Amino acid sequence: MLRFVLRRLAWAVPTLFLVTFLVYVALRIGTNPVESYKRINPRATPAKIQQYIEVNGLDPNYVRGYFRWLANFVTLDWPRSIKGSREVWPQLKDALANTLRLGAAASTVGIFFGLMLGIYAALRPGGRRDVGVNTAAFVGISIPPYVSAILLQLVFAVYWSRWFGATLFPTSGVYPPGHTGFNLFLMMKHMVLPVTVVAIQIIAVYARYMRSSLLDVLSSEYMRTARSKGISERRVLFKHGLRNALIPVVTIAALDVGSIVGGLIITENIFSYPGMGKYFLSSFGEGDFPLLMPWMVIIVASVLLFNLLADVSYAWLDPRIRLE
Amino acid sequence: MTTPVLQIRDLKVTFTTPLGPLVAVRGIDLDVHPGEMTAVVGESGSGKSVTFLAAMGLLPRTATVEGSVMLDGHQLVGASPKLLRSIRGRLLSMIFQDPLSALNPVHRIGAQISEMLRAHSSMSERAARIRAVELLEIVGIPQPGDRALQYPHEFSGGMRQRVVIAMAIANSPKVLIADEPTTALDVTVQAQILEVIQRVQAQFGTAVVLITHDLGVVARVCERVNVMYAGRVVERADIGTIFDEPTHPYTRGLLASLPQAGVDRLVPIAGFPPNMLNPPTGCAFRTRCEHAMDECSQRLPELEQLGSSMTACIRAKELVGR
Q1: Smallest Cβ distance to B94: which of A220, A228, A233?
Q2: Which residues of B fall within a CB distance of 8 Å from A246?
Q3: By CB distance 3.0 to 4.6 Å, which of A12, B143, B257, B292 could disulfide with B286?
Q4: How confident is the model at residue A159 (pLDDT cuts 50, 70, 90)?
């Protein structure tokens, strides 16, 4: 197992190089960084422009340019943002922390309730509760986050303050404007609505995964063997059923959580939540190459990491899988 | 004769389906005596597995069971889930057809066997593990100590069936139901598995019900044979009688379709088993029977004594010797 992990990590390095090269090329074609720099800084001198090209590795030759960028990146000699004013890492770090917090909360809530609903539905296939869960899951999947987000904002901010005189949950940011320092309660209050929006989708998807996976397992022969032993129905379900049903779900969950790091763009924007998604949209809008590249590297690295995690958890749960 | 340990009387099993009620078992009587090896033979869909799944209480919710199944003084039809649970695996256990899918892939072999032991006794985890290894040895698994720590996928089909047998006999049940235990296995392995079943039967004094569609298997190991067709027992006799003087046309058909030394041509039974959603009136076999007459559709034939067999055919007597 350890050897497998080490080998996969070793493979991740060239993968990271290749993918970041492709991302580099795509960003250069897609955003034209030099033109963006001139547009944002109309009075930049040719010397300034040349310096921007130098530090960002924007050589006309993509290969030479990529290695220049790479050299600066790995030595942590990161160029400043396109306006030349802000350091990249402090912003990126905050965005990452905010998104990880939102993603972790939404995934935990979403996967937990999703699995519960899936199990609840699978125990009486075709029954009333099954139809109920299926319908709810179908609705949950069908509502795009921008619709549910706006509905929630309307109810908990606009109408709530009309009915009761004050908003129940804030609709934007991590803290109220002007707040400084750490305050867990305020932070959680601000996260309620965005977490709900993201969790609705996750609950709906995982309820369906879990339901179908558990139904598969429940109809398998070894479940009948387990029943034929005369053990309690509860033990049959938990010891023999759930363990097997969770194998595919956990694998999918690991992959999904990996993609959440860059995947909350819509929700974060609606709630003005300063996470990775919002960071991406604003830097992409300005063609801010120095901000975009490290963002891309983090997204790629997280996908690679969670892929590895998916493989390892699969082998850990299923003795038939040997990682060699 | 001894009192039967398992006594089935007028058992009916009906499945509720979208197309209407499907009567899979249409009133059968069957006795299993202690220490005896009884065969239940029939085609797919003849109700042979359903009969015993009903006795185990393992049928899906869509099934309705009527009649009586007495096991060692307990009525199993309509019994509480609690009573059924205490009987399953202790007095009555079952070996399933496909050993490849009958074991849970994520639990170790030893743990799956000791779970069976601990379900019905206050045995400690450790004692159960030790007993599980002994059981593996009894069913002929080499290096049982090491094998107990392995997972099902590390075993071959024949070895897995031995594990399933070890599990089924763990609590020395009164009755062991073997539901097509050799069907999924290679011919060479089949003989070994039958031998294991015979050995544990002798060692534990367990009555064995062998459910099969393979008369060749029956000939090798069983003493009494029940032939089932369309949810009814159509003939019941000792093994010698069945092979030498079959009385029911269906049994004769089965024997004629069995490969035998010195017989060049196999004669298949024409036609198909009836649709159980809408079975024929009277004798269910009449649609495929070369001896059928109008009278066969009038009433359902009951098992009647004929020579040393019980047979459910109104023309059996006149057909004897033909």
Answers
A1: A228
A2: none
A3: B292
A4: confident
- What token pair was written down for A158? 């606009």
Q: Which residue has the higher pLDDT, B50 or B259?
A: B50
**Does the pLDDT of residue B166 top 90, yes or no?**
yes
- Cβ–Cβ below 8 Å for A244 and B164: no
Write out the residues of chain B at the interface with chain A, using a CB-CB cutoff of 8 A: 56, 58, 81, 84-90, 93-94, 96, 98, 101-107, 115-116, 119-120, 151, 153, 164, 167
The tokens describing B34, both together, are: 């202690």
Map residue A282 onto helix, strand or coil.
helix
CA-wise closest residue to A104 among A275, A270, A251: A275
How much is the average pLDDT of B274-292? Answer: 87
State the pTM of this model.
0.83
Let me know if A71 is exposed, middle or buried by CB neighbors in 10 A (0-12, 13-18, 19+).
exposed
Q: Taking CA A228 as the corner, what is the angle to CA A226 and CA A232, rounded to the nearest 5 degrees?
A: 65
- Interchain pair A244, B153: CB under 8 A: no
Per DSSP, helices labelled H in chain A are 2-31, 33-40, 46-56, 62-74, 88-122, 128-142, 145-153, 160-164, 184-218, 221-228, 233-235, 243-260, 265-270, 276-285, 289-317
Compute CA distances A263 → A30, A256, A275, B217, whole Å.
20, 10, 10, 61
- Rounded distance, CA B162 to CA B143, Å? 14
Enter the ipTM. Answer: 0.87
Distance from the Cα of A233 to chain B's closest Cα (Å) equals 9
**pLDDT for B68:** 94
**Is B222 within 8 Å of B198 (Cβ atoms)?**
no
pLDDT digits (tens, 9 = 90+) for B104-129: 999 999 999 999 999 999 999 999 99
Q: Which residue has the tokens 């060239």?
A: A14
**By CB neighbour count within 10 A (0-12 exposed, 13-18 middle, 19+ buried), where does B292 fall?**
middle
Mean pLDDT of the region B205-209: 93
What gap in Å lies between CA A237 and CA B113, rounded to an integer? 18
Task: Write down the pLDDT at residue B1.
Answer: 60
> What is residue B87's predicted lDDT score, i.e. its pLDDT?
94
A11: Cβ contacts below 8 Å, ≥ 6 apart:
none
Which pLDDT score is estimated for B134? Answer: 95
Residue bearing tokens 């075993």 = B155
